Amino acid sequence: MQTIRDVLKRRDTYWVEAGDTVRSAVRYLCERKTGAVAVKEGDEVVGVFSERDLMHKVVNEGRNPDKITVRDVMTSRLISIGIDDEIHLAKAQMYKNRVRHLLVLGREEQFKGLVSMRDLVDADIADSSELIHRLNDHYYQEAYKTTIRFSSNRMITQRFTV
C-alpha cells in the first residue's frame, strides 16, 4: 500500500506568509497551478489557504483581496497526517474532518507539505491502472496459450483464443 511519502514525491511544497495579501497568495496559487498552500508565520505552519477560502471568505463577502491578509481568511484548524502513514488513513482523516487538504508532518513534527484529496485519487488511479495492466497481461497469456495434446497416432496443437 502506498504511503503519503510516495504521494508527496511527485509534488513540490508550497507555502505563503500569513501577512501576504490575498491577491498575492492567489497569484502564487495560479502560477503554481495548485488549489491550496500552507500558511507560515516564520517557521511555523499556522494555517492553510485554499480556493475555497478565497470563494467563501473573500469573494462571497465582498472583501478586497488587495487589503486583506491571508491570516484573516485562512483555515486555521489544521488536520495532519504523518508522512509514513498509508493513504487510506489520509482519506479517512479527510472524510472524518470534512476537509480536502491535510498537513503532512515528518518525524519530530516538521512540515513536509500538503496532501490533497486529488493527490489521493491520483494515487488510487495509478494503483488501479497498474493492477488492470497486470490482470490484462495474465488474462491474455492464458487466453492465447498454445496447448499440445497427443492422440494415438498424432500430436494436436491447439491455440485457445477468446
Put the structure in a nutshell.
This protein is an alpha/beta fold. 41% of the residues lie in helices and 25% in strands.
Give a verbal description of the structure.
The protein has 162 residues and is α/β, with parallel strands linked by helices. The chain has one domain: CBS-domain, CATH 3.10.580. 41% of the residues lie in helices and 25% in strands. A 3-stranded mixed beta sheet has the order 1-2-3. A 3-stranded mixed beta sheet has the order 4-5-6. The longest helix has 27 residues. It is elongated and about 95 Å long. The mean pLDDT is 87.
Topology summary:
Elements: H1 4-8, E1 15-17, H2 22-32, E2 36-41, E3 44-50, H3 51-59, H4 70-73, E4 80-82, H5 87-97, E5 101-105, E6 111-116, H6 117-143, E7 146-150, E8 155-159
Parallel strand pairs: 1-2, 4-5
Antiparallel strand pairs: 2-3, 5-6, 7-8
Descriptive labels:
162 residues; alpha/beta; CBS-domain; 3-stranded mixed sheet; 6 helices
CATH architecture: Roll
Q: Which shape, going by the Cα principal axes?
A: elongated
- The tally of helices reads 6
Care to count the β-strands? 8
- Tally of discrete structural domains: 1
Instruction: Give the overall pLDDT as a whole number.
Output: 87
Q: What is the CATH topology assignment?
A: CBS-domain
Main sheet attributes: strand count, strand direction, barrel closure: 3 strands, mixed
- What Rg is obtained from the alpha carbons, in whole angstroms? 25 Å
In which range does the helix fraction lie? 40-55%
Order of helices and strands: HEHEEHHEHEEHEE
Strand % is 15-25%
Output the structural class.
Answer: alpha/beta
Terminal-residue CA separation: 33 Å
CATH C-level: Alpha Beta
- Main sheet: which strands, in order across? 1-2-3
